[in-house]
Design a protein that fits this description.
3 helices; mainly beta; about 50% strand; ten-stranded mixed beta sheet; seven-stranded mixed beta sheet; globular
Length: about 270
């Protein structure tokens, strides 16, 4: 077999830093490089909403993206994306996404991107590093779709490595890693893995009241059509969903998120 051709690849870097003062969140730094842009829709309250835009139109083999979000002391910052992120098939290299998130004393950082869709034969390595002050609040929701169900596509092959490392006060409190490789569609069909489901999501909530909310969360999940569950320990709460398709997952997760946050989802979710 001939080697895959060398192609020009997308590289992007985005840094957003904000801090709270006098009941409002103020932008302090915005740095954009390459294909990544940060947009700040107007908000009526004191919170700040930021939208990450990938101008390259998706993620292809060999692309490299780095995102850094810093919610400094007192900031209330929500991060989202305008649409689902598409990871295209690869004939060689993997795409790389590295995300660093930080929340300072009294800050609230909500990471709420729309779903990531992996095409058949996509190859993605994604890593999240989160550093939290002891009295901060952090909420993250990440959804993955493996294969384009609307086109009848099954992810027959490819590779996914998805890693999370969360630290509070400098100490590691949460580590999670998902690795899928080879015949992914065959693996997902196994009852012990996904039982034929192709859409999955995780919510992570780190806050002083995380464990106290567990019973209410389990009650709220009782109406889910997806397979779902929740657990809480050591000041954090984790919810997972596993659904047949993204439509089912979105219905369940968006309803839950609005109830859990006590606030609407970012406006771009409805666009």
């Amino acid at each position: 077999m001939s080697a895959a051709p060398k192609r020009q690849r997308s590289v992007g870097r985005l840094r957003i830093a904000a801090a709270g003062a006098r009941g409002r969140t103020h932008l302090q730094e915005l740095e954009e490089q390459g294909a990544l842009r940060g947009r700040l829709p107007r908000s009526d309250g004191g919170d700040m909403e930021a939208v990450i835009v990938n101008t390259s139109g998706g993620v292809a083999c060999g692309d490299t993206f780095a995102i850094e979000i810093d919610a400094r002391d007192g900031a209330r910052l929500t991060i989202s994306t305008p649409a689902a992120e598409k990871v295209y098939r690869s004939d060689a290299e993997e795409a790389s996404i590295h995300v660093r998130l930080a929340a300072g004393h009294g800050a609230a950082l909500h990471w709420l991107p729309q779903e990531t869709i992996l095409f058949d034969q996509a190859r993605l390595a994604r890593r999240y590093e989160v550093d939290l002050a002891p009295e901060s609040q952090f909420l993250a929701f990440e959804a993955l779709v493996l294969g384009r169900a609307a086109r009848g596509e099954v992810m027959k092959g490819g590779a996914l490595v998805d890693q999370w490392r969360v630290r509070r006060g400098g100490g590691l409190i949460y580590a999670d890693a998902l690795r899928l490789a080879g015949p992914i569609g065959t693996l997902l069909a196994k009852p012990a893995i996904a039982n034929g489901r192709h859409a999955l999501a995780t919510l992570l909530y780190v806050a002083p009241d995380a464990e106290a909310r567990l019973e209410d969360v389990r009650a709220a999940l009782g109406t889910c059509a997806s397979a779902c569950g929740a657990s809480a320990w050591n000041g954090l709460l984790v919810v997972r969903w596993l659904a047949e398709d993204i439509e089912m997952l979105r219905r369940d997760a968006t309803s839950f998120l609005m109830t859990f946050r006590g606030a609407p989802l970012p406006r771009v979710w409805a666009s």
